[in-house]
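so the lab meeting is tmrw and i was supposed to have these ready like two days ago... anyway. pasting both below. for each one the top line is the aa sequence and the line under it is the structure tokens. i havent really looked at them closely yet so no promises
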Amino acid sequence: MSEFTVGESDFLLDGRPVRLLSGALHYFRVHEGHWRHRLAMLRAMGLNCVETYVPWNWHWPVPGGYRDVRALGRFLDAAGEAGLWAIVRPGPYICAEWENGGLPPWVTGEPGTRVRTRDERYLSRVRHWFTHLMHEIVPRQIDRGGPVVLVQVENEYGSYGSDSGHLEHLAGLLRARGITVPLFTSDGPEDHMLTGGSLPGVLATVNFGSHAREAFATLRRHRREGPLMCMEFWCGWFDHWGGEQVVRDAGEAAGVLREILECGASVNLYMAHGGTSFGGWAGANRGGGLHEGPLEPDVTSYDYDAPVDEYGRPTEKFWRFREVLAGCHDGPLPALPPSPARLGRPAQVHLDGWSSLGDVLETLGGEEATAPLPPTFEELGVTRGLVRYEVDVPGPRQPYPLSLRGLRDLAVVYVDGERAGVLTEEEPRLKEPVGGPARVELWVESLGRVNYGPRFGEAKGITGGILHERQYLHGVRARGLDLDAFRGGVAGVPYGALPEGGAAGLYRGTVPVGGAGDARLELPGWTRGFVWVNGFSLGRYWSVGPQRSLYVPGPVLREGENEVWVLELEEADPGGRAPRLLPV
């Protein structure tokens, strides 16, 4: 048993000054079969600590049931066995470029609830969640023989709000539920953020990607005592669909790391290993300086241009950081662990069946609802996935423009069974007018809920209404297809022959594997959708890039035949090739 405390200028372990050299690694973004390898990579880079968020919505996606909360405990045990301390950031809000910033949509979408405030309805949900979650953290604190040395209160609250009473309540809740190690907050190094997001008596840390001395000087204006720590050194960055891949020069990033250490500070690399937002859990941002602009959905890969890449390989940044971090150790750093197995040889997916989106919805979808105006995803209980809205245009009437108010995020439209176009927030009106009578189907997809900024928590679906000219069309029928519905398999879905023209729908196939190991899946000619391999969801693919393939963790594959499902939501190029597995 040891005691980890916050001194006047240092972290103290049993009274002796220590420096935290930490790296972010999210257990929920790494296949459990690779945890130990990735933790060993952090040790080999020269780190002595690992940091992770905890996603509330991943563990409690719908009311009434938790999902593998013990995964956090298993990860912390693995960190301790790897010889690493651990920092836990339980939120409940985490940002992390994660769907809805980690909060369940059934909480953010509950009428009357004001999240990230002292609203009692919200806090009652948090108390219930923390009661379960603390069973995984409390017994693994360092003063009980575990690796956990720090626990965060909320996350970057100063960039969102100024309700210090909310932070005080969360800190008190953590203490009441058994957290005895030091608590901390983290925010950007700006006066309004540190004013709104810090608490008296709680360690304040700062997040930045450059100008370390200026950042710590700002922190010192607010806190004259306590150890300096950059809780998020942004050594890379994330990518958006339709944007450019972000890359940071390894030498320049290593120079900033050296500057942080020269300030006598502790550091947490964000990210040390980013991993992958499997299962369609990637979040989204709003563009513009005030985060109020167009939606910018995050890609599936969370490689983050990190020192350990998405496949677990060391990059140039890894070696540059290792050189800098070696100066903080008396002896040689640990050697790199053996690399995980890689796919033995390329293999092509053989597609042998197809089911229309309508048939998939009929088999796996939720209950149909009818309402005067379109219900949102939250009202239908859809966490991630899509909703089919149906409405009748009465007639006879002449053709008028058909448009959607409050569309979030993308709709593929069919009129009387014929595809009529794709609508977005920026282009919510069909190019060709629609006459009546007619039946309109709108397959609306969420591209990821906002995880940061003032529009965090906004609803998905058609949030305003369906307009024909200026007239609302009422009597909307809606039915959701949640991605979690595929967790139980697709055996009940009716399959037929492959369609001509690459129609939207669920494609079934198999791929032979000889030499199972880490691989990537390419989908040339496919537009946008989701992929499962042996029931494991790889996440979203999208032809707009910049991501061009999906990571397939080796533990997902097996020798011989493997099952593949591709849910194409728009259309596949009939001249395109079948999906194929390639070694990483």
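ok protien two:
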Amino acid sequence: MNSRKWLVICVILLLGIITEACSKPNTYVLKSPNQSIELTINNTDGALNYEMYWNGQQIVQNSELSIFPNTKVKITDTKVSSVDNTWNPVWGQFSEIQDTYNELEIFLDYEGVPATLYVRAYDGGSAFRFVINELLVDAEPAFYIEYGLSAGDEVYMPAGESMPKGPIVLNDLAQMDSIPYRWQVPLVVETEQSKYISLLESDLVSAPGFSVIDFEYDKEKGKLISNNEFTSQEKKVVTPWRLILLEENIGDLLTNTVPQNVAAPLALEDTSWIKPGKTVWDWRVHGYTAADGFTYGIDTESYLRFIDFAAENGIEYFMIDDAWYTNVSEGHIEMSDKLDLQKVMDYAEEKGVSVLLYYDRREGDYGDAALFQYYKELGAKGIKYGFMGSNVSFTRDAIQRSAASELLIDFHDSPVPFTGVTRTYPNAITREYCHAQQDSRRAFTPQAFIRMALINALQGPLDMNNGVFDITGVNAGEREKGPKAKNLYTTVTAEAARTLIIFSGLVCIPDAPEAYSEKSDLFEFIREMPVGQWDETKILHAKMDAYISTARRHNESWFIGSVHNEPGGTLLVTLDFLEAGKEYDITYYEDTDKTHFKTNPEAYRVRKGTVKKGDVIHAKIAPGGGHCMWIRPSKK
């Protein structure tokens, strides 16, 4: 092909991406690579507005966005580009991610202050980011964006450790005297056309001076709004990416890769020390008495038993929670006399098990700059950071400092939802942006789990501590730590399924080693399941307040976990993702006909068989129960 013909083709392609309509001056249209999503940007009467269409239907009505609210703006120039490449995350739901989008770069003038708006159109949604290369002293930027949704759209949102809120019909809000909600990210919207939207942000790590977005509803405008001020003294302003994800099925929001694609690339040269995996955990086991009469506590012998179990079952980590120390000063921790930590660390190293140590900031700042190197010197492979608060700059520093000391970091207790950060700093292995198992059990019901799996999990990896096998013992109040309310509503098969459904780089299983050994045939699903190193992930079924079914592939093996709310039901799992012409062995981990999440939570059965591509599995699930499958190529 000669260069002239190639130039003509390029011009035609660019015209398909962006056009300036003669009938509408200062109006620009940006389309996604497959043309399904269309963004219209217009500059009218000194304001910058956008609209969003999906397969010809308007999803977001005319809405304003600005980096200087209440300041007139004009477009001075535009630039269009296209990107089509792939990249490989250090760990994640996919081993390879396709990054394909069209981008419109809009050069702006805010009454003498230059700024640039980047707009990206993906097949799975859109993204907006402002950049100011040199901020004038008297300028006061704030990332303001409206979302003109339809009055009949229904909204769901996280609520900390409580049941996520929703459905909230936007038209109902317009009738209220005041809006009784704090709108946390991410929002999930079910449109009037039964399609699904998620509103969130990504790459906060690259945006010093901005806090996590909150949403509010403006009754006069009839729109959701987010408005975050820039608080830094930096001359350069870079906002996070504001995202609008679009999917036909709610479960596909969980595998939408736009939040990862817009995040900054990997910032670490060496990631060989970053290893996702499973961990046993001591905190919720204290007070458990095994069949041999041994009672777990904060002591050396208890921790050696945990390590033995981890080593015997290929579990990579052992997490020691609070109370292993008594006092903290800058760069130093006073050890508790209840245990010999050095003996525990040496024994873990001998057994090939890595240790994660908890740290609690509730009493103030203990010199965090020195903390991470101190943990490394102790022999820890990671830190579980407790009670750090929702402080963005502190969280960013903690992630970077832990990376410098080659430590994994797990954020506990209402952390910042740093969506996309695992691409940039994959040592940020997980975070408790949810209601964790056995914490404030007022919210832990089958319904709450499904909501959190479809809402909270959109912001990234979750530390939820699923996998309780001694449900009866926990509800009998036989453990020392945690609430005494006897309302852990689940089944043991649901617990196994939840460890797969909730994506994380660190799957923390919270029960006693003996509880797992007593149900070793069921524990096989958790033991054999890899963590974080998935090649492919599919959400097979998902419905808010009803059920979710997740399938993840590692090499040629598939792991499938499903859960159901009341009253239970049967999910049809079509094995069309298997390779044709090949026989597979399958193990089913199931509820029984007598299983019930309140009255008989520990009844289960395990059976085996063979399957092939196209087979349909009838996954029968008890009320509040679960179903698991492990599928791998037959050895016959």
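from a quick look at the 2nd one: The radius of gyration is 26 Å. Confidence is low (pLDDT under 50) at residues 1-15, 18-23. will dig more after coffe
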